[in-house]
Design brief:
Oligomer: heterodimer
Shape of chain B: elongated
Helix content of chain A: 40-55%
CATH architecture of the largest domain in chain B: 3-Layer(aba) Sandwich
Order of helices and strands of chain A: HHHHEEHHHHHHEHEEHEEHHHEHEHEH
Largest interface: A-B, 39 and 45 residues
Largest sheet of chain B: 5 strands, parallel
Helix content of chain B: 40-55%
Number of domains of chain B: 3
CATH superfamily of the largest domain in chain B: P-loop containing nucleotide triphosphate hydrolases
CATH topology of the largest domain in chain B: Rossmann fold
Strand order of the largest sheet of chain B: 2-5-8-1-9
Number of domains of chain A: 3
Radius of gyration of chain B: 24 Å
CATH architecture of the largest domain in chain A: 3-Layer(aba) Sandwich
Number of helices of chain A: 18
Number of strands of chain B: 9
Radius of gyration of chain A: 26 Å
CATH topology of the largest domain in chain A: Rossmann fold
Distance between the termini of chain B: 41 Å
């Protein structure tokens, strides 16, 4: 009887562990809860290291998971000896939040709706409805600087804008698809089809069928500046990016301020609250200073491989950089030959009297295939023919 | 501690077959062979991902079937293809014999005219083979989706022939270099192991195992040099394969200590630095510094 209780206890603990992993953004589900039991059976519970390695192989699905796993494992199975970001909370284990304020609050849902949220939302939506780019003031910037991601998801006012962006994204996609349609006049014979149809004529290929290379829509790589100087626009572009992610097949989105983070998966989640949570997780330093050069260097080193001959790289930034212009130029020089087109969208360009004279912008210009304003929806829509033609 | 023993045994067998694996990798491999779930290996180029599949095939003494993925890979080159030339010929011959159309069709769409490609070959072996799907990220999403179906059902349906069910379940090793983000579905179906650059000790053992004639002194220097080189900000970090190439090159040139012939040493660095930027970046005084540290 005791043994059965122990077995039951261990099984429960394993399930709890898998759920903890899920809570920490590991891509695991019920199937893995069962598999974990199997893995434990194969590995044996007597050997802690083997169980650790087994569960690691089962539960991790990329390098990021791989690096986080040990800490998670220790926090769950050896809580006493570990000081970590993961800790036992009221409702099981939850990830400790960085800031003290939300750590004090028990439930996550609560802290999402922080007190000053509503006023910020109003500010932000108001801004975008006006088309953005025209209003600017110290107080406004300061309030956005400490924004969470409420403005990205919450208000009804945003829905109109999102619908517009979504429609735009769909239009772009339609264009792209039409380009894909194969024509009847290929150059190579489609042997299989020809042969199959020749059976009607006793094996004589009377009608030839052709094949040709399929045209694809381009791969889009969007790199969005979310630093303080861009805070008026960054939410707008994130919404745009989210619409793109949901409509295009092949999009990668990165956000950067002082460092660069991939946010495609975060944007892809259908549940808006989860989008917001994922983004909030990566948000340390959000709306801080800009280091375009460093961020692009990270992009080149870690994610440069996603660029291929049919990718269009779109950098959204005002070009106000605190780093060395030469370094920025060097990074752009690395990106340029690896993709088809390099586009820079600058929200400031839509402003009257703006000239791209900042050092960073000057350094970047020689590498760009297209340099265009994007301070509101209209200017983005105006870009549509160019983007689809690229 | 039976499981422990088996990890050790596997580790030893891997070493015997010429692959130095750390314990965690051996444990992953043991689990992978026991549960026959696909194993997804990720890591930088040149850390020995592909080699793992080769060595498993050697250790378990089973055939290795390799599918190299590339952009545009389709079912015809991955699963099966009909041998059209033979089919056409055979139709002509059957015509002379005045065979009925129906039986003629049966004849030419039989297994005799089926060209097996790696995936079909892998599931029709008498003995479980190791199926290496190399650089899956180079193939497109459509192929990945097809692969998922194959990996869950282990059957292939050919319209003209019917469904072919697996006679043996292959050990599937999938490698990825991260050219493209893989789908979560595929990741979830696989065990995952991230292969990192080896630590000093491990790399030293690899060099000694592969190139015993290098000798303890030079191999130690070579590995120390490469380990330090990886810490620099290079565009393409040298992998284990590069270390081995370099050691072999030094051996050929008769260099038995890194400080012996500085000029010759600089010339051999082409084995390690694979881009122009990197070779420009690594200036001679920096090489000297690295050599001094490696001695």
């Amino acid at each position: 009887m005791e043994e059965r209780q122990l077995a039951h206890f261990l099984q429960t603990r394993l399930v709890e562990f898998v759920r903890l992993a899920r809570g920490n953004n590991f891509q695991v589900g019920v199937a893995e809860e069962l598999d974990a039991q199997n893995v434990a059976l194969k590995c044996g519970l007597g050997n802690s290291m083997r169980l650790r390695w087994g569960l690691r192989a089962l539960l991790c699905s990329d390098q990021d998971d791989w690096e986080r796993f040990d800490e998670l494992y220790d926090a769950f199975w050896h809580p006493a000896n570990v000081q970590s970001r993961y800790s036992a909370g009221a409702g099981g284990l939850t990830r400790k939040r960085q800031d003290a304020r939300s750590a004090a609050e028990g439930s996550r849902q609560e802290d999402i709706r922080s007190s000053d949220a509503d006023s910020q939302c109003a500010d932000d939506s108001d801004e975008t409805d006006n088309g953005g780019g025209t209003r600017e003031g110290a107080s406004f910037a300061a309030s956005l600087a400490k924004t969470d991601f409420q403005a990205l998801t919450d208000p009804d006012e945003m829905r109109a804008v999102e619908a517009l962006v979504d429609r735009l994204a769909r239009q772009m996609r339609k264009r792209a698809i039409r380009r894909q349609r194969p024509s009847k006049t290929g150059k190579k014979i489609h042997l299989r089809k020809t042969f199959r149809n020749s059976l009607r004529f006793g094996g004589t290929p009377m009608v030839l069928h052709y094949r040709e290379r399929i045209k694809r829509q381009p791969r889009l790589v969007l790199i969005v500046d979310v630093s303080r100087s861009m805070s008026m626009y960054s939410f707008f572009f994130l919404r745009f990016a989210r619409a793109l992610v949901s409509v295009f097949r092949d999009v990668s989105v990165f956000a950067y301020h002082t460092q660069l983070l991939p946010i495609t998966e975060a944007l892809r989640q259908t549940d808006l609250i989860r989008v917001r949570n994922s983004l909030a997780m990566m948000s340390q330093g959000w709306s801080g200073g800009t280091r375009i050069g460093d961020s692009l260097a990270t992009f080149n080193d870690k994610y440069g491989q996603i660029l291929n001959s049919r990718s269009i790289t779109v950098i959204v930034s005002d070009g106000l950089d605190t780093g060395e212009p030469d370094y920025l130029a060097a990074q752009l020089a690395r990106i340029k030959p690896r993709c088809r087109k390099l586009v820079w969208l600058n929200p400031l360009l839509g402003r009257n009297g703006y000239e791209p004279i900042s050092q960073g912008m000057q350094a970047a210009l020689p590498y760009l295939d297209m340099f265009a304003p994007a301070h509101n929806l209209n200017s983005l829509q105006a870009l549509e023919p160019d983007l689809t033609r690229l | 501690m039976e499981g422990e023993d088996r990890v050790t045994t596997l580790q030893a067998r891997l070493a015997e077959a010429g692959y130095i694996a750390e314990r965690s990798l051996s444990a992953s491999l043991l689990l992978f062979t026991e549960m026959q779930r696909p194993l997804l290996l990720e890591g930088d180029a040149g850390v020995g991902k592909t080699e793992i599949a080769h060595v498993i095939a050697r250790v378990f003494d089973c055939p290795l079937i390799r599918l190299q993925c590339y952009e545009g890979l389709d079912v015809n080159s991955a699963v099966y293809e009909w041998n059209y030339q033979h089919q056409l010929l055979s139709i002509k011959l059957l015509e002379q014999d005045r065979v009925s159309a129906e039986s003629a069709e049966q004849a030419i769409f039989s297994k005799r005219f089926l060209l097996e490609r790696p995936l079909l070959a892998a599931i029709t072996q008498p003995q479980s083979p190791v199926l290496l799907i190399d650089e899956i990220d180079r193939a497109d999403e459509e192929f990945e989706a097809y692969l998922l179906e194959l990996l869950s059902d282990f059957q292939v349906s050919i319209p003209e022939l019917g469904t072919i069910t697996a006679t043996s379940k292959p050990y599937v090793v999938i490698t990825s270099n991260g050219t493209r983000e893989l789908s979560d579905a595929l990741r979830r179906r696989c065990f995952y192991h991230y292969v990192d650059y080896p630590e000093f000790d491990k790399e030293l053992r690899i060099v000694n195992a592969r190139l015993p004639e290098v000798g303890p002194q030079l191999s130690r220097q070579v590995v120390a040099f490469v380990q330090d080189l990886r810490k620099l900000d290079l565009r393409k970090k040298p992998g284990v394969a590069e270390t081995l190439d370099w050691a072999a090159a030094l051996l050929k040139l008769g260099i038995n200590s890194l400080d012996a012939e500085p000029q010759l040493l600089l010339d051999t660095l082409v084995c390690l630095l694979k881009t122009r930027e990197d070779s420009i970046r690594l200036e001679s005084f920096e090489v000297e510094r690295l050599v001094a540290r490696a001695l």
